[in-house]
Each structure stands twice: as C-alpha cells, then as structure tokens.
Design a protein that fits this description.
Blueprint: H1 2-21, H2 23-41, H3 45-65, H4 70-89, H5 100-122, H6 129-156, E1 161-162, H7 168-183, E2 192-193, H8 196-229
Antiparallel strand pairs: 1-2
Helix pairs in contact: 2-3, 2-6, 3-4, 4-5, 5-6, 6-7, 6-8
C-alpha cells in the first residue's frame, strides 16, 4: 500500500515539474483554443459551460505561470476573483451587462500578468523554447488587456465605439476581436472608435503592438547571438 502511494506521489511530482517547465506552452495553447473555438461554440447552450471552464482554466494557468513569488500569487488571485465570479454567476443570475468593476479588474489582471511575464522573459539567461512562448503569451495578453480597457471606456462613455447590437458575451468577443485587429494593425474598419479618447486608445495599442514586436524580437535575437558567440 505504501509503495503504491509513494509511486503516486512521484508521478504527481513529475507531472507538476513537467507542467511547470512547459507552463507558457500550455497557457499559449489554452488561449489560442479559447480564441478560435469560442465564436463557434458559444451559441450552443450545451457547450457554453465548456467554454467557461476553458476561460477559467486560462485564468488559473496565468496565475500558475506567474507565481514566481508569493506576492505575485496573492495579487493575481485578488485581481482574477471578480472575473471568475462574473463568469460563473451567468448560470445563477441573468446579468444583462458586465459590471464596470469586473472590466477594470480584468484590465488590471491581464496587465499585471504581462508585467510579470515580461520580467521573466527579460531575466532569462538564454533564449529557450519557453522564453519564446512566454513572449508570445505576453503579446496575446496585451491584446486581452486592451479589450477590457475598451469595454471599460464603453461603460464609462457609452457610444465610444460603433458595433452591432448583441449580448454581453458577444460584446466581449467583439472587443477582443477589435483589440487583436488593432494591435496587429489590420484595421478592418467594421468596428471603429467614435470619440477622440477611443481613437487615442486604439492608436496607443497599435503603437505598443508594433514597438513590442520590434524591441522584443531584436532583444531575443541579440541575446541569442551573444550567447552563441560566448
């Protein structure tokens, strides 16, 4: 009996170590699956709970990825709590809109995660696979952070953006879509900012997206070349 328990403990320890070494790869896969599958499955009631489980798993995976210090774990857990409550309260309370506080906490949570992940990337001594995955994850989280910033502005100043009418969940996906096409400077024009403040935020996101790619890629290449030369 003791040998089986010891074997189980070793298996769990091995799994946790493997997951920790590949935490940014796992997080990247979860984010990409959420982005791709949500528009196709969200309309079906039977699969909506799976999408919310996937979203919650992303929140938890972010916390797991940035838990380099105990303080990081505490702060991230406090910031993500309103997001988890808002996600699952949908099944118990028919919310007609996402609360302003939840949108603000969403922007703060993703922003905090970006800062910690970038610290991990910058402090890396070599360009490993996980370093590259961490840099990609940070880029995606910047776009998600900006989506919550846009939603916050729309709550404070209604009519800041032109977009089709829809439910709260559809509104979230549309702002995520607008954020990603903005940060990549695609700019399809189907959703547009209508006020100077909204336009300023969109321009700032586009600039941050391009500067991020240029600076980070140059830094990673420079560190890799320096490492190989040594």
């Amino acid at each position: 009996m003791g040998s089986f328990q010891s074997m189980g403990n070793r298996t769990n320890d091995t799994f946790i170590r493997t997951l920790s070494r590949n935490r940014f790869l796992v997080l990247l896969i979860l984010i990409l699956l959420q982005i791709v599958l949500t528009p196709f499955l969200d309309e079906f009631t039977e699969t909506r709970i799976l999408m919310d489980l996937s979203l919650t798993s992303i929140f938890l995976a972010i916390i797991f990825a940035i838990r380099t210090k105990h303080s990081h774990l505490i702060i991230a857990s406090i910031l993500v709590l309103p997001l988890i409550l808002s996600t699952w309260s949908f099944y118990y309370f028919k919310l007609t809109h996402l609360g302003l506080a939840t949108r603000i906490f969403g922007a703060l949570f993703f922003g905090y995660a970006v800062v910690i992940i970038l610290q991990i990337v910058v402090r890396s001594t070599e360009v490993s696979r996980e370093t590259i995955f961490a840099a990609i994850v940070a880029y995606l989280l910047i776009a998600l952070m900006w989506a919550f910033i846009y939603m916050t502005m729309e709550s404070l100043i209604p009519g800041s953006f032109s977009m089709p009418e829809g439910s709260t969940r559809q509104e979230m996906m549309r702002f995520e879509y607008f954020s990603f096409v903005t940060i990549t400077t695609l700019g399809y024009g189907d959703i547009t900012p209508l006020t100077n403040r909204a336009s300023a935020l969109a321009m700032l996101e586009a600039l941050i997206g391009q500067i991020y790619l240029v600076v980070l890629v140059a830094w990673l290449v420079g560190m890799h070349v320096s490492r190989r030369s040594k």
